[in-house]
Amino acid sequence: MVTIAEGVRLAGAALGAVGGALIALEFFQVPSYVSYEEEWDSYDVDIAPGDVTEHTNLGRIGGLLVSLGFALLFVGELL
To answer: From 64's CA, which of 9, 22, 73, 79 has a CA 20 to 30 Å away?
Structure first.
C-alpha cells in the first residue's frame, strides 16, 4: 500500500513530467510572426508589437504543472 507521503510525491512527479512535456511541445511551435511562403520557398518575418504572441496556453499550463509538481514533491518530503 502507498502511504500518503509517497502518493503526494508520485503525484508531484507525474504532474511535473506532464508539465515538462507540454513545455517541450511549446519549443517546437512556429512563432505567430513567422510565415512560410511555398511559392518562394522562404520564410517571412512580420513583426508588429501588438500582434506578437511569445507563449501559448500550452506552455503556460506546462509551467503551472511543473511548479505544482515541485510544490507537491516538497509537501511529500515534509510529510
So the answer is: 79
